[in-house]
Design a protein that fits this description.
transmembrane helix; 2 helices; transmembrane; single chain; ABC transporter permease; membrane; mainly alpha
Length: 52
């Protein structure tokens, strides 16, 4: 997958690395902003019994 992505990106190696870094940051940001908060209520570790 990484080889295919590297071959299909435009520009020299420095530009490709910058594009990949920005893309990785955007995917990580999307996960923390939308995916993880949407999944959190369904996770079993949210039901704690400490203090009850």
């Amino acid at each position: 997958m990484y080889g295919w992505l590297w071959r299909h990106l435009p520009g020299p190696s420095v530009v490709r690395a910058l594009i990949l870094a920005v893309a990785a940051f955007l995917v990580l940001a999307a996960c923390f902003l939308w995916v993880f908060p949407a999944v959190a209520p369904f996770m079993p570790f949210n039901e704690t019994t400490v203090g009850e």
